[in-house]
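Contributing new records

If you add data, match the layout below exactly. Sequence lines come first and carry their own label; structure lines follow with theirs. Keep one chain per record. Anything else will be rejected by the validation script.
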Amino acid sequence: MSCHYCAERPLHPKLEAGQVAYTQHQYAEAFQLLSLLAYQGYVTAQCLLGSMFQLGLGIERDSAAAKQWYQQAGLQGCALSFHNLATIYEVDDQNPAMAQYYRQQAKDMGCELME
């Protein structure tokens, strides 16, 4: 998954390698590469880490950590992160009000998934 809503240009070499590892299901490598970049503020890395925590890809599923990373990425302009955050609030937390809030945030940012 490459987040076209928040992709940095030009790509940091480790970010590109992390995205490749993610798409090739090499989650241990992806986690190692993306974690450092997420803490450095790279939006795409934050979004992908959120996905890894949300779905339990190569790491233990942790919706609290997923929400944290999605929130950080969303605040930097990643509509997909807000869309995914809405999904967590709707499905995992059974909180329709928060789900609707983040769904609207994603839509306002142009997330086609909300159309």
